[in-house]
From TrEMBL:
Protein name (Swiss-Prot/TrEMBL): Unannotated protein
Signal sequence annotation: none
Stored InterPro entries: AraC-bd, Homeodomain-like_sf, HTH_AraC, HTH_AraC-typ_CS, RmlC-like_jellyroll, RmlC_Cupin_sf, Tscrpt_reg_AraC-type_HTH
Organism expressing this protein natively: freshwater metagenome
Entry-linked Pfam families: AraC_binding, HTH_18
The entry's keywords: DNA-binding, Transcription, Transcription regulation
CDD domains to which the protein is assigned, alphabetical: cupin_NimR-like_N
One Gene Ontology term of the molecular function aspect: sequence-specific DNA binding
Domain HTH araC/xylS-type residues, every copy: 159-255
Length: 255
């Protein structure tokens, strides 16, 4: 049995007669679905708040300005952070001209946002659903952004640490303490991050923290507050790391 054999398959009963359909979820309902897959492509987007999506061995924090396209068959999970107005679009591969074969982040423009909301009102049915879907797919085609997310280590011990840090980026527990809790050598844990992600422990933690900062900045929180909430001891250190990663300051990114 392979690891993928343990991934649940969600067939979306009754959907075969439609090219696409949408689902919206209660903004106050948190939680996660668990790792699963289905034959349909899926677009994950929040109209408000944020969600964390895991797909293809990577993790992304998705504020309203970004969505994640997950190709059919790719194991994935979505973790809601209430209040989060989650919207999902499902499209059968035969009805989707997008060429992406791996999870792809897209920028959600004002136009794309309105189209997604309009398509959500139809549920994928009725006379305006097909032309609205065509416009959504057209907008998506030119909206891909260079965001490779945060790579998740394959080693189960390193993965346990990574999962905790993604849930609480401000957790400042030293790696030596994590190693002691997991009953593994600190050097072994460090090697697991480098081998599994291509990043050192310090680099990986910084990338996870900066990604979490995007959703907080988009919510309008002060930069000082964002820096503290994602684990930076100083605003200067946060700003320097943010510029190195995204090529601009936190304040400019939010604008």
């Amino acid at each position: 049995m392979t690891a993928l054999d343990d991934v649940a398959t969600d067939d979306h009963p009754g959907s075969a007669e439609r090219d696409a359909w949408t689902c919206a979820f209660d903004p106050d309902e948190g939680g996660a679905w668990g790792l699963h897959r289905h034959d349909q492509h899926q677009l994950v987007w929040t109209a408000a708040g944020s969600a964390r999506a895991v797909a293809g061995g990577r993790s992304w924090v998705l504020p309203p300005s970004r969505a994640l396209f997950v190709p059919g068959g790719v194991p994935h999970d979505v973790v809601l952070r209430p209040p989060a107005a989650l919207h999902c679009l499902y499209v059968w591969p035969h009805a989707c001209p997008l060429p992406w074969t791996r999870p792809t982040v897209v920028a959600v423009s004002g136009l794309l946002r309105e189209l997604l909301l309009a398509l959500g009102q139809t549920g994928g049915e009725g006379p305006v659903a097909a032309p609205t879907l065509a416009l959504v797919l057209h907008e998506l085609a030119g909206a891909a952004v260079a965001d490779d997310g945060v790579v998740l280590p394959e080693d189960p011990r390193a993965a346990a640490v990574a999962t905790r840090l993604l849930a609480d980026p401000a957790d400042d527990t030293p790696l030596a303490d994590w190693a002691a809790r997991l009953r593994v050598g600190e050097s072994t844990l460090r090697r697991a991050f480098v081998t599994g992600t291509g990043l050192t422990w310090t680099e990986w933690r910084s990338r996870a923290r900066l990604q979490a900062a995007l959703a907080l900045l988009e919510r309008g929180l002060p930069v000082t507050s964002v820096a503290a909430r994602v684990g930076y001891a100083s605003v200067h250190g946060f700003g320097t790391a943010f510029r190195r990663r995204y090529g601009t300051s936190p304040g400019a990114w939010r604008s």
